[in-house]
């Protein structure tokens, strides 16, 4: 990595705040597949090809969703610093590695914008793989979370009882496919389980094993720590499918922006979330999920949400200096 220092307009502290915030975004198996270049007040979010998942994410869908989530965090931190922001997805045909370009405008003289008020939730938001409380999430809260996704050009479809029943069947098929896919399991072993430093999902963050079949993803794929705790999970969590109008690379990135905006909004109401994305990682199963939400909607992410029974466990993060390629 070469960092070029020119005549920066942003201070070292500001860059640290922006990139530390970006690094708190969710990504598949916590690979953190992003790098950054800063030119004046323009921040480019780039794909790091060394942090992709060719076996589990061959199309790059989940990687692009992670890049979008990181970009949203940059905008949140910038708003907290009172910068106005605009962005462009895939801004340079000659640089296909740049997923998002964020433009920092003038400083706002008024109070912090609504996006900036989410800054305090960045470190509170964690992927929670433990049991949820039986307490129902109000329709008002669900609508606020949905509105956050809509603000980024995506939609959240909350599933009813029949759709959740069918989703269980889809998940069962996905889990069976995973257990018999040696390439996926080998790749996952490089990122999940054991002790982790800087990236990946350590065993401590996998959550307990469910005592009965339930709507939760076990990233260990059945090969976890024998000393791992077991727990009774909730029978009926809130389940939402994040959808976009189009199923292409641009909308995958847009889905990441929407996902993170929704997750941070959920965190303000003490709602925790994890993912059931195994049901959209296989093309035939993704088509079945699309049947649940309507053929005009393209499913990108499946979210399990509710009030957590326990505190979520942290996952490691790279130092922001390690993700900065150029600053001038």
Automatic annotation (TrEMBL):
Chain ranges of the Nitroreductase domain: 7-175
SUPFAM superfamilies recorded: FMN-dependent nitroreductase-like
Pfam families associated with the record: Nitroreductase
InterPro entries named in the record: Nitroreductase, Nitroreductase-like
Domain of life according to the entry: Bacteria
Cross-referenced NCBIfam families: Rv3131_FMN_oxido
Designated name of the protein: Nitroreductase family protein
């Amino acid at each position: 990595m070469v960092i070029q220092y020119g005549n920066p307009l942003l201070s070292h502290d500001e860059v640290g705040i922006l990139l530390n915030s970006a690094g708190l975004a969710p990504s598949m198996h916590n690979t953190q597949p992003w790098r950054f270049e800063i030119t004046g007040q323009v921040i480019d979010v780039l794909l790091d090809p060394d942090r992709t998942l060719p076996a589990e994410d061959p199309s790059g869908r989940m990687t692009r969703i992670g890049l979008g989530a990181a970009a949203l965090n940059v905008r949140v931190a910038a708003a907290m610093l009172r910068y106005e922001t605009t962005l462009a997805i895939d801004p340079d045909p000659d640089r296909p590695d740049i997923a998002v370009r964020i433009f920092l405008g003038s400083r706002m003289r008024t109070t912090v914008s609504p996006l900036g008020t989410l800054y305090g939730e960045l470190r509170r938001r964690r992927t929670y793989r433990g049991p949820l409380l039986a307490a129902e999430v109000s329709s008002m809260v669900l609508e606020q979370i949905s509105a956050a996704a809509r603000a980024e050009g995506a939609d959240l479809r909350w599933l009813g009882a029949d759709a959740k029943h069918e989703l269980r069947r889809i998940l069962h098929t996905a889990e069976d496919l995973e257990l018999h896919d040696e390439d996926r399991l080998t790749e996952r072993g490089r990122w999940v389980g054991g002790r982790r430093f800087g990236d990946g999902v350590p065993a401590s963050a996998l959550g307990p094993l469910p005592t009965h079949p339930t709507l939760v993803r076990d990233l260990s794929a059945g090969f976890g720590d024998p000393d791992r705790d077991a727990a009774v999970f909730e029978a009926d969590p809130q389940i939402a499918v994040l959808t976009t109008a189009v199923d292409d690379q641009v909308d995958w990135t847009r889905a990441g922006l929407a996902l993170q905006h929704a997750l941070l909004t959920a965190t303000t109401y003490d709602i925790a979330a994890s993912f059931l994305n195994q049901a959209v990682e296989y093309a035939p199963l993704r088509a079945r999920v699309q049947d649940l939400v309507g053929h005009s909607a393209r499913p990108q992410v499946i979210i399990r949400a509710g009030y957590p029974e326990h505190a979520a466990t942290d996952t490691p993060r790279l130092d922001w200096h390690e993700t900065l390629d150029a600053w001038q």
